[in-house]
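Example 4.3 (complexes with small molecules)
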Amino acid sequence: MEFIELVKKRYSVRAYEARSVEREKLDYVLECARLAPSAVNRQPWRFVVAESAEARERLCACYHNEWLRQAPVIVAVCVDRGAAWTRLNDGKNHADVDGSIATEHICLAAAEVGLGTCWVCNFDYEATIAALRLPEGVYPVALVPMGYAADSASERHTSRKPTESVVEFI
Ligand SMILES: Cc1cc2nc3c(=O)[nH]c(=O)nc-3n(C[C@H](O)[C@H](O)[C@H](O)COP(=O)(O)O)c2cc1C
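Answer. The structure with flavin mononucleotide bound is encoded below.
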């Protein structure tokens, strides 16, 4: 599959079939996350995989939309602020950037093997930290539900700004 096809294939899935995700597929997706690039190769991430009903429920309680409960797996992409690179000249910590790259690797790899995902960031931040029992300095970047899609892409998926309004050659 050409990369552009994969990019188009991935969309935000907000309804999932009840069937579970095969372990090999989950391992493949997590390996693609592990191999993601990060600033100064710090790899400040921790991928917390919620598979049990109890763990998923703890995370679902941190998000206001019921559809998350359908996902058979939720991967919480977490980062350690202290482990990530901080740019000296302005103090910008890159944990969010690193976590975001890994998150999109997860979403694209999942799409490649026929699994649906959705970036979820609109969670209750403090409640999610508590639900994941994260240590000081470690925080969630995204929750990524994963499973077999039971919906199709929304209009938003094909709605992108035109090239000329987002690309500039200087
Ligand atoms: C950083 C980020 C946060 C997002 N948070 C949520 C969210 O909390 N809930 C949700 O349903 N979708 C969320 N989305 C999905 C976006 O709404 C979606 O990617 C966008 O509308 C484009 O649609 P597509 O992913 O189907 O192409 C998020 C996406 C990104 C990149």
